[in-house]
Structures are given as C-alpha cells and as structure tokens.
Amino acid sequence: MPIRAQAPAGKEAFDYAPQDDKFPFSGHWVGVFSDDPRYIGATTLGDFDHDGDLDFADGQREDVGGGALWWEYCGPDHWVKHVMGTGHKYWSGGNAADFDGDGWADVIIGDSWYQNPKNPRTAPWARFSTGGPKPEEIILGDVTGDDKVDALYLHKNFQPQFWSPGTDPTKPWTLGPLLEHNQQQGGAIADFDGDGDNDILAGYRWWYRNVKGDGSQWETVDIFASGFDDSPLTYQGDFDNDGDIDFALVTHFGGRVAWASNDDGKGKFSLHMLATDKDFLHTIVAADLDNDGDLDLLVGNNVGKSFIYDNTDGKGAFVEHLIAADTRSHEARVGDIDCDGDLDIVGAPWGDQNEGGENTKPPRDHVYLKNEFVEGGGKPLFDRQPFELGIAADCKKP
User: Which position among 256, 293, 335, 372 has the lowest Cβ density within 10 Å, counted as fewest Cβ atoms?
Assistant: First the structure.
C-alpha cells in the first residue's frame, strides 16, 4: 500500500500544524482500537518489527475484551494495526523490554507478557503469565543488581511489589519482598540515594531504599506528608543538573504539576509546584524535547490538552507551553519514532467518561505528535538512551 500522506476522511481534525514555536509538534491520526474503545492503557514504544523505527503498542482491560494490539509505524499519517493477543488481566499498566534475550522487544501487560515472534506482522504472539497481580502500573528496571529487568507492580489493592523473570521467562516469575504502603500508581526505579544501586519510588509519599543493593531488603523513607493527591504519576530525572536523581509528578484526579528536588543527593526532597489548574492528567515524561541538553516535562490529559514545561535554565526553572489543544494522552510515550533526531509523542485515550474521557466523540482515537524541531532547522540529536528498556530504534547520525 502507498504511504498515506494525510489523515483519512473523517479524521481531518487530527491533522494539524504546530501551534508553539519553541516546541513545534504537528498532529497526526494513528487509528482506533476497536468498536468498543474503552479502558485502553498499557501503552509502550518499541521497534517490534526490526525495521529501524519505533512502533506503538497498547492493550484493553479484559472486561471489555479487546486484547492487545501493536501499531506499525509506516509514516506520520500511516500506522497499520496488528493483533498481539488476548488473555491478560490489568487495570491499566504495561511496558516493553526484551524479556527472553533474543534481541526482539516483548510486551508486558498486567499479569502477562507477550513474546515477540520475530515476524510480528504475520505470526501470533505467545502469552505467558508472570504470576503477578492485576496492576494499575508496571515500571521496569533492575532492582536486584543482576543487570536484568525486573517489573514493579502497583495498585491500591496490594502492596508494591516486584517480579523477576528467571532463566526461562516463560515460567512464572519470582516475587521479591513486599514494600510497605499500598499505592495506586506513581512508580519509578532509580538511584535516589546515590549509592550505585536502584531504589523504588511509589507515589509522592514514600520511596524505598535498596539496603543491600540486591532487592532483598528495603527501608521505607517518607517524602511528603501532604500537598498532592494519593494517585499521582511520576517520572525520574536530574532536572537541576546537580548530578542526583529528582522526580516530577502530576495529579490524576486533581490539577497539579510539580517536581521534587533531591536536596542532599541521598533522597531528601523539596516540592516545587508548577501548575494547579489542570484536570485529569495522566502523562508525565521527562525528556529533552528541544535538544538543548536538559530535561523538559511532557504533561498530558486523558483527552484534551498536552503541555511541555521547558527547563529554561537546565536547573528546574520550568515554563509552560501548550503544544496541542486536542489530543489523546493517557500514558503517552516519548521516543524518536521517525529517526530524524528529535523526540516525538504518541498516546491513546482512556475512555472513562468520569475521568476526562470522550463523552461525545466516539470512537476514541490514538494520536501521534510529530516533533518538527529538526525540520524547522534545529540540530538533530541521536544516540539517546531509550525511554523504555531494550526497545530503542536504530536511529543513527546520517
């Protein structure tokens, strides 16, 4: 098929030019999940077909029955929908990594993971149980110190916990020690105390120190007693360029955006509020979205506006920019999708009408925001670290 050069008939509203000079993102239509497009989460980016660019994947909650899909990137206005599988159970969470070590990106959704068949356009993806519970969020990272991926599971119905695949990841994974406080979402894995191993963050209230560095013993550390809601989303990074790990956070049910500075480099944080006037936020990603060498913040609604907070001095002096007035940013993901040297955004709607979903605009569409920074004369930046594990596109400097 020829590569489509514009949105199809009826989807022209998603084909629009950039509206911000500093962060110029053009809008493009990706597709619609199914005839009943509610409760779509588990979003992730990965080069699933090994063609050198990033594709997108997401899943639907099992009580709706839509299963899991991946969307092959062919061009900004042309994405091809492929079936991944069915049978997972989740509230929203998913991610991607190479779990079986074969060099191909696999996908984890809720209590299951889908194995990339290496010819994913035509072959079925096998589904295997992790043994884990039904999560709201899954964060991937190494917390056991063996240089292999572990999966942090969060939901208010159970204690935060991580699961580790064994030599044979198709067998049930191993459950690590349970952490202390139930938390809906807001997980991050990073070295918050600067001792060389990864710790765990859960929401804005607590982080957990990896005492021995191997995930066998955890110390609960209080962060903030109040000042945010109980279901934030978070993302880690060094926002003030002082060499330690801070974190950013947005409220799910409230309207606040903030970041927390790691004041002593050992996990003592101070809160810096950036906005209090938003609604139903469900994306926070820290990334260099203007190629200037520091971390900016992408913030998005389930449905509606998306913002970038420009790190103007590289030290946490953030300025808000509206980059899209009507997009779909439930768990939006960031990566150099088209391999042109700047970072793009792709997201899906959630579809819950009580949480900023589309009351009058079904079907609920997926949207791609293409970064036009390089096309506008900006200097490309390649060889970035991937934003998810083991899934980077093969984007090389020309």
Answer: 293
Give the predicted TM-score (pTM) of the model: 0.96
User: CA-to-CA distance for 328 and 219, rounded, in angstroms?
Assistant: 38
**pLDDT 10s digits, 76-129:** 999 999 999 999 999 999 999 999 999 999 999 999 999 999 999 999 999 999
Backbone phi and psi for residue 227, each to the nearest 5 degrees, phi listed first: 115, 0
What is the β-pairing status of strands 233-237 and 303-311?
unpaired
Residue with tokens 């709201």: 136
Query: Where in 158-231 does DSSP place strands (E)?
Result: 158-164, 174-175, 187-190, 199-202, 206-210, 218-222
Name the 3-class secondary structure at 354.
helix
**For residue 302, what are the CA distances in angstroms to 41, 193, 339, 372?**
11, 33, 26, 23
Q: Among candidates 198, 79, 60, which has minimal Cα distance to 141?
A: 198
Q: For residues 333 and 43, is the Cβ–Cβ distance under 8 A?
A: yes
373 burial level (CB within 10 Å; 0-12, 13-18, 19+): buried
pLDDT at residue 37 greater than cutoff 80: no
User: What DSSP character marks residue 13?
Assistant: G
Task: Identify the three-state secondary structure at position 276.
Answer: coil
Question: Is the CB of residue 193 less than 8 Å from the CB of residue 208?
Answer: no
The band of 394, judged by pLDDT with boundaries at 50, 70 and 90, is: low
